[in-house]
Structure formats: structure tokens, C-alpha cells
Amino acid sequence: MEQQSPRKPVLKPAGSTSLVKKVGLSSASRQARVPGADVESRLRKWADSVMTAWVTRDQARLLRLLTQATGLQCARLALARTGAAILLNSSSIWASLPDSWNEKRQGAVTRWKQLARLSPAQNETKKHPLCGLEPGDFLMAVNRMKNYIAAEEFAIVDTAPWHASLALKLVARGFLSPYHLEGLGPEVAKEFTAEVQEQAVLSRLIVKINNQQMRGRAQFQKELALGADMPNLNKINARWSLRRR
Fold first, then answer.
1. Closest Cα to residue 139, out of 59, 51, 68?
2. Less crowded by CB within 10 Å, the N or C end of the chain?
3. pLDDT digit string (tens) for 166-186?
4. Whole-model pTM?
5. How far, in Å, CA of 81 to CA of 41, rounded?
6. DSSP secondary structure string, the chain?
């Protein structure tokens, strides 16, 4: 009886079906992620540009951005993370444009809504680019911050464009008053802006505010230590509150 030689293992070629499937799935998953990230990146850049153009009253740039919006791709998750739809929906931001452009804006709003419905729902916290404020209140806060920065820098606002840019970045992060910067260190300026000029201005601003608040608290404690009666104490508290606004 002949002995059967042991069967040799069958080696699958490099292009076998199982390997192709694995590579295909991995490649497909990467391709699925990249477009989504690209869409979000473009929407974020668009939203930042709209905010800057609106605050600086750059009407020509707003016109270009509105035209760009009609061709931008979007998804529900990207819109939630960037707050771009809130800006496009806000008629106050685009109020300086000719009335004929409102129809184009409404068309872009409708298109974005249709594209968003095609993407799956996500449990994502929506970003509000205006910190939950009405456009007019947000713009007022930016202008107050800009004027404060200019005054501290002994400069004319119109001749220092980075003042408006820095003010916008601060208010958009929730710092609606300069005194909200109290307690921060000057080194955190790099976290707010990548612009060297703005970093220098913000660092000086933080140091000044911290020094002012320290002197104010020292004066407050001194007045309390004098044993002021209740009416005077109320005046002291009111004066201290005004300093922090």
C-alpha cells in the first residue's frame, strides 16, 4: 500500500480575495473619513472668514463668501461643529449686501438643508459662533473689546487692523469683557491667535488687566478695613462692580 505524501499547504497569492477585501475595506473607510474632514475644514474656514468680513465691514468679501456658499458641500455633523449654518441663516450679518443678493442667500440656505438631510443624524453639540448672542449684541461686544485694546495700546482703531481681529477672537471664545481675562497668564496668548502681533498685544493686555485688578482689590480691602458704615459699604461694592464690567 502506497503511502500518501502529506499535503502541502496552499499558499494564497498576494492578490487573494480575502486580502483584497481587507485592503478594500480599510481603504474605503479611510476615504469615507477624509471627505468628511475636508468638508468640515472648508466650512470652518468659510465661517471664520464670514465673521472677519462682517466685523470689519468688508462688503466685497461678504459678496464673495456668499457666492462661495452656494457651491460648498456640507453635512449635518460638519454644520453642527462649525456653526456655519447659523451664520448663513442670520440676515443681520448679510444686511449690508444689496437686496438682490438675499435671494441667493436663501437659495444657499435651502441647498444646505437638503444636503444636511442626506447625511446621518449625529448626537453632536452644536457650536454657536456668536456665543449664543444676537448678532447686534455680539458685534457690540467686539467693538467694545476693540476700542479697549486700542485705548490700552494708545492707537487709533482704524490704523490697527489686528485690534479688530484680536477682539473678534476673544469675544468668539466667550470673553465678552476685557476683565474676563483676569487671572490668565500672558503666555496663553498663543492659544488665542497664531499672529505674532496679536500675541504681543494680548500678552500686554493680560498683564495690565491683572495689575489693575490687583490694585483695585487692594483698594477695596483698604476701604473695608476703615470700618465704613453700611451706606458707604454699598457704594464701595457698587464701584467695585463697575470696574469689573
1. 51
2. N
3. 999 999 999 999 989 999 999
4. 0.71
5. 10
6. -PPPPPPPPPPPPTT-HHHHHHHHHHHHHHHHHHHHHHHHHHHHHHHHHHHHHHHTT-HHHHHHHHHHHTT----HHHHHHH-HHHHHH-TTTTTTS-THHHHHHHHHHHHHHHHHHHSPP---PPP-TTTT--HHHHHHHHHHHHHHHHHHTT--GGG-HHHHHHHHHHHHTT--SGGGGTT--GGGHHHH-S-HHHHHHHHHHHHHHHHHHHHHHHHHHHHHHTT--HHHHHHHHHHHHHHT-
pLDDT in tens, 135-175: 999 999 999 999 999 888 776 555 567 788 999 999 999 99
